[in-house]
Amino acid sequence: MSKKILIIEDDPVLRASIVQTLELEDLEPIPTNGFTQARRSIRSNFNGVILSDIHMPDHTGFDVLEFALARDADLPVVLLTGHSDVPTAMRALKQGAYDYLEKPCDPDALVATLRRALNHRAAVLENRSMRTELDALQDDSTGETLADKLEFHEKKIIEQAMLAANGRVAEAAEALGIPRNTLYDRMSKLGVVAKAFRRSKDE
Predict the structure, then answer these.
(1) Rounded distance, CA 72 to CA 137, Å?
(2) Measured between alpha carbons, how far apart are the two ends of the chain, in Å?
(3) Domains and CATH numbers, the chain
(4) Number of H helices, E strands in the chain
(5) Residue 52 in contact with residue 8, Cβ under 8 Å?
(6) Omega of the bond leading into 12 within 30 degrees of 0 (cis)
(7) HEC states along 156-186?
């Protein structure tokens, strides 16, 4: 899972405090002083989340939100707001913000919110990757059926597990997280022979 947090905060003291908090939690802050500096990092494939102040001299958190969601509707944007700006933050949620936090932020709440956002982002990117792989399999012009292609990949996975397990079926099944009998059945169907992966006389 990515640990990147793009921070957009014009207050240098608060920005430094947030950076320190995140680094202590083994996260990867990317501090910027405003939207202009941050915008080059906001891309559809950005493997992280955004933490942005709402009120800044040149741009607002709404500018950040609009720009980010235009590039990727599933890119989490967490907004920082003062107590009197909570209605504004609520409006931002309706416009697609992932969440908001009141300043000054409780460190535990800040980290918990950002970790949830990172988990969400990781799930989104993983699903996209899987869809891309499946689309590539379906669009392949070799004439093979999707079932044939999936069996090919399954066989490769089993062969790698058997190689790592030195041909021991029970060990390979445990590594794959499936019952041993299920692995035997799949190996028989796919033509995978255990002894072909044994590098010694060990059973």
Answers:
(1) 25
(2) 37
(3) 4-131 (3.40.50.2300), 141-197 (1.10.10)
(4) 8, 5
(5) yes
(6) no
(7) HHHHHHHHHCCCCHHHHHHHHCCCHHHHHHH
Q: What is the DSSP letter of 34?
A: S
The candidate with the shortest Cα–Cα distance to 172, out of 201, 151, 193, is 193
Which two structure tokens, joined as six digits, stand for 188? Answer: 């028989």
Cα Dmax for the chain: 73
Calpha distance 188→14 (Å, rounded): 62
Q: What secondary structure letter does DSSP report for 103?
A: S
pLDDT digits (tens, 9 = 90+) for 28-56: 999 999 999 999 999 988 999 999 999 88
Q: Which amino acid is at 196?
A: A
**Angstrom distances, CA of residue 149 to CA of 135, 156, 159, 172, 193:** 12, 11, 15, 22, 20
- Give the Cα separation of 23 and 105 in Å (integer): 16
Tokens standing for residue 117: 């956002």
pTM over 0.85? The answer is: no
